[in-house]
Specification:
about 25% strand, Hypothetical Protein Yjia, Chain: A,domain 2, seven-stranded parallel sheet
Length: about 350
């Protein structure tokens, strides 16, 4: 009896703003005829990543090809959403050739990989690989800890401390589960010394044999991204996690909210304003769309830290209400009132 072919699934993880969506856009534009089913997990209630991908202008990238789980971390909701989503994809005719899952930037990848071991999934899908996307320039700048050496020294001296900041822990979790690391935004690194530095920073957190690949703007050959044949669901023990003790985890350190406002006459000035707001408050990531008067196309704007950029992605539809809306992701104790006031000013 011939064994049924398992559909490969690639999990793309990475911190906020690292370039996961850009990587996927490039993949979808260069599929080589493969049928790719895309599952997007958003943190917060504004499905920005899905809208960005649907506005990408790539032939064949339509509503039926993108499945969105917009209710928080995918690894926290697998029982309610993940299994039905995978079952829906498997019921399609024809079935997808490959499933790509973009996790939230705040998600822990290992619980998701573990879900592929469930009987309902294991016989039909295999995890081809976990790909961690890293913002190379931000990593060199030490964005996940102001002084990594001082934090490490404090941990060594104080047995009561069992992990670094939540950002550092998330970063380590994503690296520790990866089968391949994509060092994105490599074009922003100053020189070869910076390349060596970022690799030295990442290596202690990688499993043996895991390769790092330098990219810019997420441009990576699909032949490199897909076809890792890692069968990660059979290799869980080697993927270190701070939560391997079986304890539950949550994302109480983070929150998100969305802000609607009026038209934006100068997108470049608005991007600078967003950068100033992010630097002044404890904001990790902002992304959304703005209505530029006199322009027939919608303007996408997004960024991490103080770096923001924007572009026009598609025409406003005839039956669509033109609007400006931004989702803000940051620390739970960030000053929401002040941020909203600054955005609406």
């Amino acid at each position: 009896m011939t064994e049924l072919r398992k559909i490969p699934a690639t999990v793309i993880t990475g911190f906020l703003g690292a370039g996961k969506t850009s990587l996927i856009q490039h993949l979808l534009a260069n599929t080589g005829g493969k049928r790719i089913a895309l599952v997007i997990n958003e943190f917060g209630d504004l499905g920005v990543d899905r809208e960005i991908l649907l506005g990408c202008g790539i032939e064949g990238c339509d509503d039926g090809d993108v499945v969105e789980l917009a209710n928080g971390c995918i690894c926290c909701t697998v029982a309610d959403d993940f299994l039905p989503t995978i079952e829906t994809l498997l019921a399609r005719a024809p079935q997808p050739d490959h499933i790509v899952i973009e996790t939230s930037g705040l998600a822990l990848p290992k619980p998701l990989v573990k879900a592929f071991s469930w009987p309902e999934v294991r016989s039909r899908v295999t995890v081809d690989g976990v790909v961690a996307v890293v913002d190379a320039e931000a990593t060199v700048a030490g964005r996940f800890a102001d002084d990594p050496d001082a934090v490490a020294a404090r941990r060594a001296a104080d047995p009561a401390l069992d992990h670094d900041s939540p950002l550092e822990e998330l970063f380590e979790e994503q690296l520790g589960c990866a089968d391949m690391v994509v060092l994105n935004k490599a074009d922003l690194l100053a020189d070869e010394a910076a390349v060596v530095q970022v690799n030295d920073m990442l290596t202690p957190h990688l499993r043996a044999g895991v390769k790092t690949i330098m990219t810019s703007h997420g441009r990576l050959d699909p032949r490199v991204l897909l076809g890792l044949d890692a069968a990660a669901e059979d290799d869980l023990d080697s993927r270190h996690s701070h939560h391997d003790d079986g304890g539950e985890h949550d994302h109480d350190d983070f929150t998100s909210f969305r802000v609607g406002f009026g038209t934006v006459g100068d997108p470049k000035a608005f991007a600078a304003q967003l950068g100033a707001i992010a630097r002044a408050h404890d904001v990790y990531r902002m992304k959304g769309f703005v209505d530029v008067p006199g322009k027939a196309m919608r303007h996408v704007i997004q960024g991490v830290g103080g770096r923001f950029y924007g572009y026009f992605d598609r025409r406003w539809r005839d039956n669509e209400q033109r609007r400006s809306e931004i989702v803000v992701i940051g620390a739970r104790d960030m000053d929401r009132t002040a941020i909203i006031a600054a955005l609406q000013a």
